[in-house]
Amino acid sequence: MEHFGRKVEGIIFDVDGTLLDTMPVWHDAGARFLATLGIEAEEGLGDKLFSETVEAGAEYLIKEYGLDMTVKEVADGIDEQVAHAYQEEAGFKPGAKTLLDIAKAKGIPMTVATSTHRPFIESAFKRLGILDYFLGIYTASEVGKSKEEPDMFFIATEKMGTKIRNTWVFEDGLYAVKTAQKFGFGTVGVYDEVSAKDESEIKEIVDYYLYTLENFDFI
Q1: Which of 18, 115, 179, 204 is deepest in the core (most CB within 10 A)?
Q2: How far is CA 19 from CA 23, 92, 99, 128, in A?
């Protein structure tokens, strides 16, 4: 089957907000860390820290809660909470598992390109039973480039042995779909609450836009 003159030879998936619903993981990490210290977080803490780096969040917690800890110690504590949530809690977005099962059954190679640390992703995938679905997992920290550059997508495509124009990138992030489209990949935008503010712009860029993976039916 072809779409916009493209076959579906391979798929590159983002994870956070695309395959997995991880917004609660990151949103609640600061409050969970404070709870380990016996401190009750202020209302709205997650909203304040959500768009910050872990280090910036750590600095905020030290200042606002008078923590006698270094930025690294607090950041490591937050990371521990995130790691635990990926390992124990992060679940599929609606339709994700069915889509993966269909692609696997049809022999379509799949890879992952993510900004999240590998151990977090692998622990969630192992628990959910999908780690072996993917030929490779490529992370921004390991590749040394964010998705504002095409490197992760190129490496994933090479691993799958597919043509760029017949390789589809599933993403919820604006900057990532911009990169994928610019360099000739098929693009599927996936709605997520975190990226809702960019919805109209993403729709203008991608080949398909899905409010839920349950609506995906063109493999």
Answers
A1: 18
A2: 12, 6, 10, 11
Residue 59: partners with Cβ closer than 8 Å, 6 or more residues away: 71
Query: pTM for the whole thing?
Result: 0.91
Rounded distance, CA 72 to CA 174, Å? 30
CATH code (residue 195): 3.40.50.1000
pLDDT of residue 219: 74
Task: Please check whether residues 70 and 171 belong to one and the same domain.
Answer: no
For the chain, list residues with pLDDT below 70: 1-5
Range of the domain at 171: 10-19+93-210
SS3 call for 189: strand
Burial class (CB in 10 A: 0-12, 13-18, 19+), 195: buried
Q: Which of 74, 89, 104 is the last residue of a domain?
A: 89
Cα–Cα–Cα angle for 20, 22, 28, rounded to 5 degrees: 165
pLDDT of 1: 54
In one-letter notation, the amino acid at residue 33 is: F
3-state secondary structure at position 134: coil
| Bridge partner list, 187 | 169
Local structure of residue 137 (DSSP, 8 states): E
Other C-beta atoms closer than 10 Å to the C-beta of 121 total: 23
